[in-house]
Structures are given as structure tokens and as C-alpha cells.
Amino acid sequence: MREIGKVFAKKFKDTGITKVVTIEASGIAPALYAAEALDVPMIFAKKAKNITMNEGILTAEVYSFTKQVTSTVSIASKFLTPEDKVLIVDDFLANGQAAKGLIQIIEEAGAHVEAVGIVIEKSFQDGRAILEEAGYPVVSLARLERFENGQVVFKEADI
């Protein structure tokens, strides 16, 4: 996982990233190591609402294609500022809904999304196209093109 973080850091070291953002729980490890390698803070959006936190909370609805459930994810607004340049990091990209939810929260805070870093992209789904059409660069370490005869067929990775 640390090597994954280093790969993202190498790709984005000259972009002025000030924060790395992800959604709990499986995105935390790659995001944390990317943040460590970039020497910036990592923030994760919570899926469960904290009853003690009501003010200054930014939220978005996120539909999970894999789990077939919609979650409300949230980040306290005090963790993002208009000066922030954010790298979103997540473990998987399928239909782009998690990234879109994070983008909504980040932009509501006035911060700027520099790029979306993905460990494994399901290229046979439309997540990349949705994000790129909206103007967000996507960088994937592994891209699954399809499954054929019980085997995974990969596309060329971005880096």
C-alpha cells in the first residue's frame, strides 16, 4: 500500500496538492499513504452520521453500485478551505458516484479538485467517462477492461 501511495505522490508532486480526500473505509489505506508521500493531510468522508456533529457538515448522497445502497457521506467544513487543491484517492472506480459525491463536498467548501487517483478502475463501467466529461482528470494504477473465460483482461494503466 505504501508503494501505491508513492506512485500517486510521484505523479502529483508538482501539482500543489494540499489535501488528499477519500471515503471510508477501503479508500483510507491508499489515500493515507498518498498523503504521507505528498506530506499533506488526509481527510475521509464518513458514511455514518455522527449525532454530535450537526453544524458545519458538508454532505452528499453516494450510490454504491457494488452494495446497491445509497449512503450520505459527510466531511466537516473546517477541514477544507478555498485555498485547498485536492487529490481524491479511492480503491475502486466503477460508475463514479463516490468520486462525484466527494467532488460535490469539496467544491461546496470552495476547494479545487485537481485529480482523481484510483487504484483499480473497472473500465467496462462509465465512471471514468463521467468524471472526465465533467473536467476531472482520472489516473488509474490498474484498469480492468473485461472478464473473459474466467480471466481478467487489463487495459493499459495510466502510470
What descriptive keywords fit this protein?
159 residues, alpha/beta, Rossmann fold, 6-stranded mixed β-sheet, two-stranded antiparallel ribbon, 4 helices, 8 strands, 26% helix
Q: What does this entry look like structurally?
A:
There is one protein chain. The protein has 159 residues and is an alpha/beta fold. It has one domain: 3-Layer(aba) Sandwich (Rossmann fold), CATH 3.40.50.2020. Helices cover 26% and strands 38% of the residues. It has four helices and eight strands. The chain has helices at residues 2-12, 28-38, 97-108, 127-133; strands at residues 19-23, 42-45, 57-64, 69-76, 85-93, 112-122, 138-148, 151-155. Helix 1 (2-12) packs across helix 2 (28-38). The protein is globular and about 50 Å long. The mean pLDDT is 93.
Question: What is shown here, in short?
Answer:
It is built from four helices and eight strands; from the N terminus they run αβαββββαβαββ. It has 159 residues and is an alpha/beta fold.
How many distinct helices? 4
Which class of secondary structure composition applies to the elements? Answer: alpha/beta
Beta content: 35-45%
Quote the distance from N terminus to C terminus. Answer: 16 Å
Give the name of the CATH architecture. 3-Layer(aba) Sandwich
What's the quaternary structure here?
single chain
Element-level helix/strand string: HEHEEEEHEHEE
Q: On the 0-100 scale, what is the average pLDDT? A: 93
For the biggest sheet, the summary is:
6 strands, mixed
Quick one: how many beta strands?
8
Query: How many domain units?
Result: 1
Can you list the strand order of the major beta sheet? 2-1-5-6-7-8
- Low-confidence parts lasting 5 or more residues at pLDDT below 50? none
Instruction: Predict the CATH topology.
Output: Rossmann fold
Instruction: Give the overall form.
Output: globular
Radius of gyration: 15 Å
| CATH class designation | Alpha Beta
